[in-house]
């Protein structure tokens, strides 16, 4: 099947089959990525030590901030490309590809250079203590040097999905994960490079995957391909990319701010071991979050294309399917966090105190996970159709409006338990807001349906 025909099927093929076709590769890729995160931290926790796990947890805000800039370009570009393909505007889609590459190079280099200049003060601000600072610094020095390649790798993977190549995007991710694990064995275990070895493995594996991605886009037979004249930044294209990318950028930037608050509160009320427990609990939680992110990545080109083609029935059907699957994923997370939390914690460390704190953290952290799959899908949906203000509000509601105030207030009354309890409490509040907004929007869609030419095929 040629690339153009695959793109056109977004508007004609049965929704259930389409979602499976696009979401399964992304979910498999996210599964592989989550396994890498787990294995990487198992290596670091068991070989380097429990303080290294705490040091790695300190870098989470940095990683979220880097992801925020990458998402602003990658998600913005992929969504804009999908809409243009739905409108059959192939020339604009190609120029968006070129502008995506240029923006990733500029932002990737600038972010890495600025952060390297102020690395120690930033890590201190993020909650690093004298004991955890050396580990966090060693890890981030390598990550920031390779930041431009990471930006480009994630950006090109997003464009691959928008260009109707979900299996290629999955292959790139799985290749990165496999190489990462192999290089972890060599660098951390065999050569004894410690936490720096884990960072080097991450960067090198992404560089290798990026080379393969660029080779794919260099193929002149593809609907979207690299060629002269598409790399010069155009104001209207950059505006569209950044306009849509603002929502995921703010979501990840806020996650950075939230983790800074969490780390500092954990240090104040529980010390370095509490930070390590958060690192372990977050690692387990991220497995399931990444599953839903993969589902959202599969939903994105389908929803965006049909929105661009004004096929609202198909657009809403893919959202409903995605909500159902996301809820099932998060129920699985809740079951694991309550049935085998200690077993999960023991994967990362043999330290009894850290295991005890991690077990407790997991139970509270994922207490209301069955309802947050809905919130994640709804937030992503509004981003997919370019409703930037709604998506931004939903992205910020959980983190800025609810979680940060709770992190300030609850620990004053319940100390360390208050830090943990603030997370599920904010999840309940944000999911309620998302449900109300989605109900209002669906009613509006039903009222506007007669205005559009819709395709009701399943």
UniProtKB/TrEMBL annotation:
<dbReference type="GO" id="GO:0046677">
    <property type="term" value="P:response to antibiotic"/>
</dbReference>
<keyword id="KW-0472">Membrane</keyword>
<dbReference type="InterPro" id="IPR045070">
    <property type="entry name" value="MATE_MepA-like"/>
</dbReference>
<keyword id="KW-0812">Transmembrane</keyword>
<dbReference type="InterPro" id="IPR048279">
    <property type="entry name" value="MdtK-like"/>
</dbReference>
<dbReference type="InterPro" id="IPR051327">
    <property type="entry name" value="MATE_MepA_subfamily"/>
</dbReference>
<dbReference type="GO" id="GO:0042910">
    <property type="term" value="F:xenobiotic transmembrane transporter activity"/>
</dbReference>
<feature type="transmembrane region" description="Helical">
    <location>
        <begin position="318"/>
        <end position="340"/>
    </location>
</feature>
<keyword id="KW-0046">Antibiotic resistance</keyword>
<feature type="transmembrane region" description="Helical">
    <location>
        <begin position="139"/>
        <end position="160"/>
    </location>
</feature>
<feature type="transmembrane region" description="Helical">
    <location>
        <begin position="172"/>
        <end position="192"/>
    </location>
</feature>
<feature type="transmembrane region" description="Helical">
    <location>
        <begin position="392"/>
        <end position="414"/>
    </location>
</feature>
<feature type="transmembrane region" description="Helical">
    <location>
        <begin position="20"/>
        <end position="39"/>
    </location>
</feature>
<feature type="transmembrane region" description="Helical">
    <location>
        <begin position="420"/>
        <end position="441"/>
    </location>
</feature>
<feature type="transmembrane region" description="Helical">
    <location>
        <begin position="51"/>
        <end position="75"/>
    </location>
</feature>
<feature type="transmembrane region" description="Helical">
    <location>
        <begin position="237"/>
        <end position="262"/>
    </location>
</feature>
<feature type="transmembrane region" description="Helical">
    <location>
        <begin position="96"/>
        <end position="119"/>
    </location>
</feature>
<dbReference type="Pfam" id="PF01554">
    <property type="entry name" value="MatE"/>
</dbReference>
<feature type="transmembrane region" description="Helical">
    <location>
        <begin position="364"/>
        <end position="385"/>
    </location>
</feature>
<comment type="similarity">
    <text>Belongs to the multi antimicrobial extrusion (MATE) (TC 2.A.66.1) family. MepA subfamily.</text>
</comment>
<dbReference type="GO" id="GO:0015297">
    <property type="term" value="F:antiporter activity"/>
</dbReference>
<feature type="transmembrane region" description="Helical">
    <location>
        <begin position="274"/>
        <end position="297"/>
    </location>
</feature>
<dbReference type="GO" id="GO:0005886">
    <property type="term" value="C:plasma membrane"/>
</dbReference>
<keyword id="KW-1133">Transmembrane helix</keyword>
<dbReference type="InterPro" id="IPR002528">
    <property type="entry name" value="MATE_fam"/>
</dbReference>
<keyword id="KW-1003">Cell membrane</keyword>
<keyword id="KW-0813">Transport</keyword>
<protein>
    <recommendedName>
        <fullName>Multidrug export protein MepA</fullName>
    </recommendedName>
</protein>
